[in-house]
Design goal:
Elements (H helix, E strand, L loop, with lengths): L13 E6 L4 H5 L1 H9 L3 E8 L15 H16 L3 E7 L18 H15 L3 E5 L8 H19 L5 E6 L2 H14 L19 E4 L4 H10 L12 H9 E8 L14
Parallel strand pairs: 1-2, 1-4, 2-3, 4-5
Antiparallel strand pairs: 5-7, 6-7
Helix pairs in contact: 3-7, 4-5
Length: 265
């Protein structure tokens, strides 16, 4: 469900962020979005699903979770400075087990690519940011939407569009620090059974959003039905997650050298 937005100003760079569930844009890509907005970009966020298989801390009726999470996506996007949010409408596959018919991991991969390609054709973004197709955070929906977005963006680039593509990920060293703290706070967390994060050496781009941390925190609060993964961790570690974003540039291919500090070259 798109949120209302003003007529875009094409003198500004446009960034499309494609994630799997409402809250991925904030808990994961929040620093990248805040950094892009801070550099004057117009940002559009697309979630593949409404996240109806997620937890629900809101106390509302369970059948209404998709609507609530879609509203939270829009509210968090506004807090981050996003101009528009939209949901593709695939079902949430959940963490494991047989994915339900119509869910992101159950529908044909080509259907997911086609849906993302349609949005790319509408927006023609300058930059696309999506989740790590390698599934380095352990969630199958994240890997699925990352892979589909990569294929769709390669198609757009192959047609001559000067688009840049980035995979957002968490560096393994940071995830190791997080896991050590989580083991004492929530030893039953599903995330603790998975090796998470990519090798730090895969980083091509580091975005410093420390001056925007308050904005990211405001967005986190908007996801009232969900538990923040940063709840209860030390302030210094929280700041590392919320104030810095690590990415791997895929298009144009990375040729080495010092990490970039911007999505716009």
């Amino acid at each position: 469900m798109p949120t209302a937005s003003a007529e875009p100003d094409r003198r500004r760079p446009r960034v499309l962020v494609v994630v799997a569930h409402p809250d991925d844009e904030t808990f994961g890509c929040g620093a990248a979005i805040a950094h892009a907005v801070g550099e004057g970009a117009e940002v559009v966020v697309c979630s593949a699903t409404a996240g109806e298989q997620g937890e629900d801390l809101s106390g509302g009726p369970s059948h209404d979770l998709a609507r609530r999470r879609t509203a939270e996506l829009a509210a968090a996007g506004a807090a981050l400075g996003v101009g528009r949010t939209t949901v593709l409408g695939f079902g949430d596959s959940g963490w494991d087990g047989e994915p339900a018919p119509g869910s992101l991991c159950a529908v044909p991969f080509t259907d997911v690519v086609r849906a993302v390609a349609g949005l790319l054709g509408e927006l023609v973004p300058d930059v696309v940011v999506t989740m790590d197709p390698a599934g380095s955070d352990g969630h199958r929906d994240h890997a699925r939407i990352g892979a589909a977005t990569t294929v769709a963006t390669r198609q757009l680039a192959g047609a001559g569009a000067p688009v840049r593509l980035y995979h957002w990920f968490l560096p393994r060293s940071l995830m190791d620090d997080w896991a050590r703290h989580m083991a004492s706070l929530d030893p039953d967390s599903v995330y603790l059974g998975t090796e998470m994060g990519r090798p730090d050496a895969d980083t091509t781009t580091v975005l410093d959003a420390r001056r925007h941390v308050a904005r990211v925190r405001r967005a986190i609060v908007r996801h009232a039905s969900q538990r923040s993964p940063y709840e209860g961790i030390p302030g210094e570690l929280e700041e590392a997650f919320l104030g810095t974003s690590h990415l791997r540039r895929v298009i144009p291919a990375w040729r080495g050298g010092p990490p970039e500090t911007s999505l716009f070259g």
